[in-house]
Please model this.
Amino acid sequence: MDYLGKKYTKEELLQRIGCLGQIGGTRHYILDEGRSRGVRCIDCDTGSGLRFTVVADRGMDISLASYKGINLAYRTPIGEAHPAHYEPEGLGWLRTFFAGLLTTCGLTYLGQPGRDGDQELGLHGRHSCQPAVRLNDLSRFEGDDYIIDLTGIVEDAVLFGDKIRLTRNIRCKMGESSIHITDKAENFGYQSAPFTILYHVNPGFPLLDASARLYLTAASCEPCDEHSGQGMADRFSFSAPVQGFREMNWLYTMKGDEGGKAHALFANADLAGGLALHLAFNPGELPFFNEWKMLGQGEYVVGIEPCNSPCRNRAKVRAAGLLPMLEPGEERTTHLEIAVVEGADRIKQLANAIELV
Model:
């Protein structure tokens, strides 16, 4: 295991500590205040400086995230609200949206509210307010490496309707600064069902600031509305907070590098000698990417969002022939890596590689 720049065997490490929690690992607890009362959380510390919180009762999403004490993600004033507070109608999803490092949208619809056939759909789906069942922490040594390994099952199901089961695994190697997320979706019903998923990753201050920039391996881009079209030229750069800022959204189709991976790099070369969030994923699994730019006062956030479906109302996606479906018993797996990149030289190297794709 690599810890603070030095390699240790398992035995060498165990001789130096009373328990693994001295240098990292996982810690389980339940929140006990306000709207968050009763919510199960797991703090994860990779020992590299990366710390994050998995919220088991909120779809196994990730709220808090920091690197060497520097915050990485935007947080709304709502916090990790208990799923009982979820409001499915219209824009009610926003009343439980904590943002954080990762909020998952889906699993049978996402995008703007609206009607699809005989269903009235709200914003972004129900996944992020569904509690996980069969939560397992299988963190362990594998040889001399310690692996943080969490799994939970989240079901988005209704009587006389769609039944999607998502098994999420979150895995990290201690001493490294990467989070590996593997999601296996299964249609456990007896009729075809939509399966839509969007990974709503939310950089916030101080990572988000006027010196931040976004790099993508994108094949194409279209604005989501006329207002966003006016900001096309500046979609990869950011400013200080702006009074009265109106949100903008752009939808990209993604392409892979020589290794078949698509990339998104959200970088701030002026922060702590250079700091970035790097997303890597398979464009065959997640062919689309939504960028959400919201630079308002107190609402200062960017969404970098790989997805398997355009971030549109489901009726529009269905009409365009782009709605992913799962047949009864069918499974589909998606992978996402979220890594922290440190150092201006490494960031420049990655950014140059992305721009060459």
